[in-house]
């Protein structure tokens, strides 16, 4: 890598806020950003669960903040706390999300509303709060919304989740259009099926194995497979990208349903 290219991927001097940092993917995102030089704000409801990660990243200036993305006051407080300790947030990774699989006919209004409250409304709330502060500061910034290939295709038993991710992709592109003049880039990262502790047993079983066979690369993604796409969207290496949807799925979208 040439020095110029390395500089463009560097996040030295940047402050990045990662929502859902108590989960395995959020934690990986935080480690990746810190490894590129960013000071990282670890944000989630379960603050105690993030303490081991904060300790591992202590040398980079990582901090933990309590955050429920469905609570407007909690969102404001999280940004205020980040600014007071590390400085203004330059990069937002909108990673909070919930998935409650179930047939559409079995899903209640409350189930539907709960998934939308986190996956879409919460993401919008975080993005708008970040953008307002970026505009006021006049320095621009980057927002990365973590979507899914299920926002681009269909899957059985995930109608609410998939609908939120499709809407998140549309929101990404509209925010990109509106905020480009302020130097704010807004992109979506759309992972395919990534192996985590939560889904390991499922993918080891017969249904999971059958799904893996439909992925052209014939394997699940690993969390580290998202490192490069994340850094591209968060850093100056992707400075001419906004409104993009970056898919990392082993070719799954090219396969038949």
Automatic annotation (TrEMBL):
This is SDR family oxidoreductase. Residues 14-226 form the Ketoreductase domain. Coiled coil: none annotated. Pfam families: adh_short_C2. GO terms for molecular function: oxidoreductase activity, acting on the CH-OH group of donors, NAD or NADP as acceptor. Belongs to the short-chain dehydrogenases/reductases (SDR) family. One of its GO terms (biological process) is fatty acid elongation. InterPro entries: KR_dom, NAD(P)-bd_dom_sf, Sc_DH/Rdtase_CS, SDR_fam. PANTHER family: BLL7886 PROTEIN, SHORT-CHAIN DEHYDROGENASES/REDUCTASES FAMILY MEMBER. It comes from the Bacteria.
